[in-house]
Amino acid sequence: MTYSLLQWAHVLVMGYWLGSELVINALTHYIARTTSLSGAERMRLWDFLLDVDQHVRNAMIMSVPLGFSLAGILGLAPIEGWTMVAVWVLSALWFWFMWLVHWRRNAPAGVILARWDWRLRYVLMALFGGTAVWSLLTGWPLAAPWLAWKVLLFVGCMACGIAVRYYIRAAYRSAIPAIAADRATPADNAEFAMLMRRATWALVVLWVLLFTIGALGALKPYFG
What we know:
- By secondary structure, the chain is mainly α.
- It is built from 7 helices and no strands.
């Protein structure tokens, strides 16, 4: 019963993640193309987009304890008892910190919190990626190769998220100040649209990775 509920929740979260990404991408390109709106109106939409983007982060973080709990129940990872509790507690702390970064993004400490958010993601990518590669080589701690590949592809999803944020940061350094001040030139609008197109390519890769992760979880293929 517990496994079935966790499995249902895991699938639901994956759909939540994909759906949120699609909405955000559509809204991003609308803001980039709608040059007839005033700068203030475009920035209000952009602020709303940043709120919607939290749904992606919600789903990403929630998928971690759900996935590892399922692996523990199946006996494919040494996660049970206090280790499972630790996974959920640490994920909850990551969830809280992610929201703290969002809430304080316009505060004086916002830049520092954002910097630590990036650093945390790099640490987690190294931890998850190292665990997946080691498991593929030795069969431990993740006993099934398909599970190790799922974790490795999840690292790829995190990398795609960082790539998207890189292009958003580039927009803040170039086009967004002019748009917010309502003095954007055609060159500023073109720069903004170009950066958002590049971010979309990172999202396309992320969507492919998520579909592959879902297929691995559903099919559980044997890699001999």
